[in-house]
């Protein structure tokens, strides 16, 4: 954290995330994660992985570190070891796999969930896309385009990482 010049600690971040989760267990919490930053050891990566695995963060966008010319990290990498490209790829894949697993678990707990949903333009095979109150997409069978309307819905099932529901 110090090398990345973050103004917060992992514990402070965890506290904020846990507050959100305790307010609403259906809160969709996502974050960006950089792996392979200069000086990142196996132990530090494992700490990050374990933190993300145990946290209520449902999804994360994973980036592999690459030094940008003119940044402090660009010059630090001459003095501090940077993980190899193959190590960055392995770590990135591990985090992406964890994110996919956690997101699927998060979607699964929505089966039976009731929520207001905002209907969007997208229609596929008689279903219209809507966003739940936590911004998660759900497909609802509709007879006509009801884009822009808010209706109460119930999520019925999860299929191919996509939620399906009905208006209630």
Which keywords apply here?
168 residues; alpha/beta; Transcription Regulator spoIIAA; OB fold (Dihydrolipoamide Acetyltransferase, E2P); 2 domains; 5-stranded mixed beta barrel; two-stranded parallel ribbon; 4 helices; 33% helix; elongated
Explain the overall architecture.
The chain has a five-stranded mixed beta barrel with strand order 3-4-5-7-6. Helix 2 links the parallel strand 1 (30-35) and strand 2 (59-64). Helix content is 33%, strand content 29%. The model has no long low-confidence stretch (mean pLDDT 92). It starts with 9 loop residues before the first helix and ends with a strand. The radius of gyration is 20 Å and the shape is elongated. The protein has 168 residues and is α/β, with parallel strands linked by helices. The protein is built from four helices and seven strands; from the N terminus they run αβαβααβββββ. It folds into two domains: 10-108, Transcription Regulator spoIIAA (2-Layer Sandwich); 114-167, OB fold (Dihydrolipoamide Acetyltransferase, E2P) (Beta Barrel). It has helices at 10-23, 42-54, 72-76, 85-108, and strands at residues 30-35, 59-64, 114-124, 127-131, 137-141, 150-159, 162-167. Helix 2 (42-54) runs parallel beside helix 4 (85-108).
What fraction, in percent, of the residue positions are helical? 25-40%
Could you give the order of the helices and strands? HEHEHHEEEEE
CATH topology (fold) name of the largest domain: Transcription Regulator spoIIAA
- Helix/strand structural class: alpha/beta
The number of helical elements comes to: 4
Outline the biggest β-sheet: 5 strands, mixed, barrel
């Amino acid at each position: 954290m110090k090398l990345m010049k973050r103004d917060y600690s992992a514990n402070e971040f965890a506290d904020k995330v846990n507050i959100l989760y305790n307010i609403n267990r259906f809160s969709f919490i996502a974050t960006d994660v950089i792996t392979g930053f200069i000086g990142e050891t196996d132990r530090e990566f494992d700490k990050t992985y374990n933190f993300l695995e145990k946290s209520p963060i449902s999804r994360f966008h994973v980036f592999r570190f690459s030094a940008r010319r003119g940044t402090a990290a660009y010059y630090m990498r001459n003095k501090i070891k940077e993980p190899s490209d193959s190590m960055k790829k392995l770590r990135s894949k591990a985090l992406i796999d964890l994110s996919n697993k956690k997101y699927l678990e998060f979607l699964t707990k929505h089966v039976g969930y009731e929520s207001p949903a905002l209907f969007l333009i997208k229609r596929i095979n008689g279903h219209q896309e809507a966003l739940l109150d936590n911004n998660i997409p759900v497909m609802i069978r509709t007879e006509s385009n009801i884009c822009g309307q808010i209706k109460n819905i119930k999520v019925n099932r999860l299929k191919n990482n996509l939620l399906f529901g009905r208006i209630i």
